[in-house]
Write a structure and sequence with these properties.
The chain has 146 residues and is mostly helical. A two-stranded antiparallel sheet has the order 1-2. α3 crosses α4.
């Protein structure tokens, strides 16, 4: 008997629920140094994509520039970010992580990932882990498409 493909709406509901539950459980571990989810998102964006203008960062974060300005100022004051002059336009500047910011982010991420990695190691098979990595790639593509 032929299996029918899952309905897209059903997949969307299950995916949203699973991601929300997982995110809720991981969130406290990621908030080391008393950093908010919004600040963590900004820091992560700069870590992954490298230095960018505040306008580019606001667009990637899906926020208006004035909303980002306060976060950037706080992150600068806390030593996470630094501004540097834009190479081709002296009226603009780039935001980037400081060396200390990178070090703190990597250490925080490793500490947050350790309990999840232990659960994955102790409760999944090698085949499950391969499947999980494939699912992660699919989730990343879906996130980019949104």
């Amino acid at each position: 008997m032929a299996r029918t493909a899952p309905d897209a709406a059903q997949c969307a509901v299950r995916l949203r629920r699973a991601v929300l539950v997982l995110a809720r459980r991981l969130r406290p571990a990621l908030r080391s140094d008393g950093i908010s989810a919004a600040k963590l998102s900004v820091i992560g964006q700069l870590y992954r994509e490298g230095p960018m203008t505040p306008t580019e960062l606001a667009a990637r974060e899906g926020v208006k520039l004035p909303s980002l300005t306060r976060l950037v100022a706080e992150l600068e004051d806390d030593g996470w970010l630094a501004r540097e002059a834009h190479a081709s336009d002296g009226r603009r500047w780039l935001l980037g992580l400081t060396a200390l910011g990178k070090k703190r982010l990597v250490a925080g991420a490793q500490a947050a990932d350790a309990p999840l990695a232990e659960i994955i190691a102790n409760s999944t098979s090698a085949e499950d882990r391969r499947l999980l990595l494939q699912a992660c790639a699919l989730l990343e593509r879906l996130g980019e498409a949104l």
